[in-house]
Amino acid sequence: MFFPIIDYSAFPIQATQDWLYLHPEKKIFVENAHANSDQSVNFDLTSAILELAPKHHDKIFILSNQFSIVPLPINVCYSKDIIQSAGRQSDLNENSFLSTHCDVIVGRASGPFTFSLTQENLFTRHPKFICFTNLVPSPPNKFWVNELLRDKINYSAEFIVENVSNVDRAKYLIDTNI
Predict the structure, then answer these.
(1) Number of structural domains, the chain?
(2) Residue 137 lies in a domain
(3) For 145-174, how does the pLDDT look when each residue is reduced to its tens digit (9 = 90+)?
(4) Domain contains 7
């Protein structure tokens, strides 16, 4: 099968496992990095999350990237702080591991988001993916599946895929689907 399986034991995930043990709340993983190849429009997802977090105080929002230093609500954190990856060049596989414990995964059709598209998330678990992309599939629940395989592959995950060009629409989609 062409969907990846990551051997997480090859990566430093103990800090993440410890954090997950202490946080049973519903988790929303927001892969807020910018797309660098025009797969989607870049807009500030962080501002949307900072507005939504107080409204959803019973959930934890995990942001994959930190672009500025702003005070965060108590239920918002950065994945690098959970993973304890400060100073490392890449934490994509550790973010992937963290995504396997999140109820909702939000992002652009880009690098960091694709690391959450693992066999576990797609076929074993039942997370909800909210994806912003210029490449909206038809039907949207067949994300990344071409015409040849469209009727042969079925995800257990739910997909909401839309070509979103502004933060207000993104905020609405997140708010109504978490």
Answers:
(1) 1
(2) yes
(3) 666 777 778 888 999 988 988 999 999 999
(4) no
Domain span at residue 23 reads 13-175
In a domain, residue 149? The reply is yes
pLDDT digits (tens, 9 = 90+) for 12-32: 999 999 999 999 999 999 998
Q: How many CB atoms lie within 10 A of CB 47?
A: 15
Over the chain, what HEC string results? CCCCCCCHHHCCCHHHHHHHHHCCCEEEEEECCCCCCCCCCCCCHHHHHHHHHHHHCCEEEEECCCCCCCCCCCCEEEHHHHHCCCCCCCCHHHHHHHHCCCCEEEEECCHHHHCCCCHHHHHHCCCEEEEECCCCCCCHHHCCCCCCCCCCCCCCCEEEEECCCCHHHHHHHHHCCC
Does residue 4 lie within any of the structural domains? Answer: no
Task: Tell which phi-psi region holds residue 87, choosing left (phi > 0), alpha (psi between -120 and 50) or beta.
Answer: left
- Burial classification of residue 37, based on how many CB atoms lie within 10 Å of its CB (0-12 exposed, 13-18 middle, 19 or more buried): exposed
Instruction: Specify whether the CB–CB gap between 130 and 105 falls below 8 A.
Output: yes
Q: What's the CATH number where 75 sits?
A: 3.40.50
* The pTM of the whole model exceeds 0.90: yes
Q: How far apart are CA 126 and CA 170, in angstroms?
A: 21
